Amino acid sequence: MLQVDLISLGGDYPHPTAMLAAQPPHTTTAQLLHSALLAISSAAGGPAQAGWIFPCHDTGLQSSTPDRAQPRARPRSHRPRAAQSRPGRARLRRQKPPGWRRPSGAGPGGDGGGRDGGRHWVVVALFSFAVLTPAGAASAAALPVVINTWAFRTAAETAWRVLELGGSELDAVERGCGQCEIDQCDGSVGYGGSPDESGETTLDAMIMDGNTMEVGAVADLRRVKNAIGVARKVIEYTKHTLLVGESASLFAVRMGFPYEDLTTQKSLSLYSEWLNQSCQPNYWKNVVPDSSKSCGPYKRPEEVTYKEEQTSSKRSIRNHDTIGMVVIGVSGTVASGTSTNGAIHKIPGRVGDSPIAGAGSYADSTAGGAAATGDGDIMMRFLPSYQAVEYMRMGTDPTVACQKVISRIQKYAPKFFGAIICANTTGSYGAACNKIPGFTQFHFMVSSPLLSRPTEQVVDCI
Ligand code: SD4
Q1: Which of 154, 263, 322, 426 is catalytic?
Q2: What's the pLDDT tens digit per position in 183-204?
Q3: pTM to 2 decimals?
Q4: Measured in angstroms, how far is the CA atom of residue 116 from the centroid of ligand 1?
């Protein structure tokens, strides 16, 4: 077994933001761990700075890591198991853009960007037909179903293809969300997005098996790109649920994942712009110097007057687009997962809702699955995904379950930014979002035997 003396491996390391003059100092522990990880990675023959190898896109089933469980050989039947429709109140508009083709391998820069997808939607709507499901009707149900947040089309296509090729529900979630990590969906998933206060991109992800209720999650993961892949390894090779920070990176390296810089020109310029605008916005409050006017370092004032800021999200909707995915197989097996680079300019160490079971997502094969997106600092306080699944367990229609969860958060944080997707074990699904200025509709993707292709849908926020 490889042993590394962390202390003797201390030393400076090339921080991603080294190019920027105003680089904040880092802790010695982080430096030591970083050096240790580099040493482990190269001792293990790992490509410490190599590019990300993730060949699954070609087949949907291969892995960059050596020990991926192979999928079942025989394709599953995708015939509807139950065509059950339940009443709901949401208005779901289904759209089918023309000219859809089976993907042949979109990588970074592919068409998976949800925000792009959002803009794209406006354009294609002029040329396509839309079916407006009247208020009072819910989605038709069939299995399997794949549903994911935002218009992350390549992620939906990847997950669906994994099912078609006989992969498991967990495989589909891992590959689907992993595709977004490759595509850097909206800059909010994967490497090179949402730099924190020190300019570094860190990742949160989780995956949940609704048969066994096992969860694998990583939070504040540094210098490893395939966060949901690492989360899956937490299920497969540990008895833990959640690993965090540099220690999660150490685990990832041991599992064979490349250890590499997540910084890109884009994340550097986001960071540099933020520094130039006096570090606005940020997540501090009640500190000196005044965090609404100047950069830190901040500290507690002599006399603290605690004032809970009304929960209007100062955050830009544009940089909050976590992928959350629920997959329900033909037999009703539920799996769910998330992957995100979290909140831009977050305080280092911040962990959002995405890697927290019941918050970011939840899966229970006796009821259904749900996944959330939005302001995780608010949403995680309500365990919305768990709550939605529990509503569905009681027989509540998925759309209504999603709405009830949003309403509950609204009572405490009327201006929160957030949305949730829900699906039950019959394949019925729904979504809901909180209506705030600039966010009145929520786009999501659905794949089902009732749709000829992964289809973007939109719901009006409440
Ligand atoms: C977070 N919930 O870290 C994530 C961000 C997100 O859509 O969902 N964006 O708070």
Answers
A1: 322
A2: 999 999 999 999 999 999 999 9
A3: 0.75
A4: 18
Q: Tell me: the pLDDT tens digits for 274-326?
A: 999 999 999 999 999 999 999 999 999 976 555 555 444 455 444 568 999 99
For residues 46-64, average pLDDT = 32
Tokens for 174, please give them.
Answer: 């891992």
Alpha carbons 35 and 48: distance in angstroms, whole number: 11
* CATH 3.60.20.30 residue spans of the chain: 145-261+314-460
Q: Which CATH number fits domain 145-261+314-460: 3.20.20.80, 3.10.310.10, 3.60.20.30, 3.30.390.50?
A: 3.60.20.30
* Annotation marks residue 158 as catalytic: no
CB 322 near ligand 1, within 6 Å: yes
DSSP string, 382-442: G-HHHHHHHHHHTT--HHHHHHHHHHHHHHH-TT--EEEEEEETTS-EEEEE--BTTB-EE
- Distance of CA 370 from the midpoint of ligand 1 (Å): 15
Verify whether ligand 1 is closer than 6 Å to residue 175 (CB atom).
no
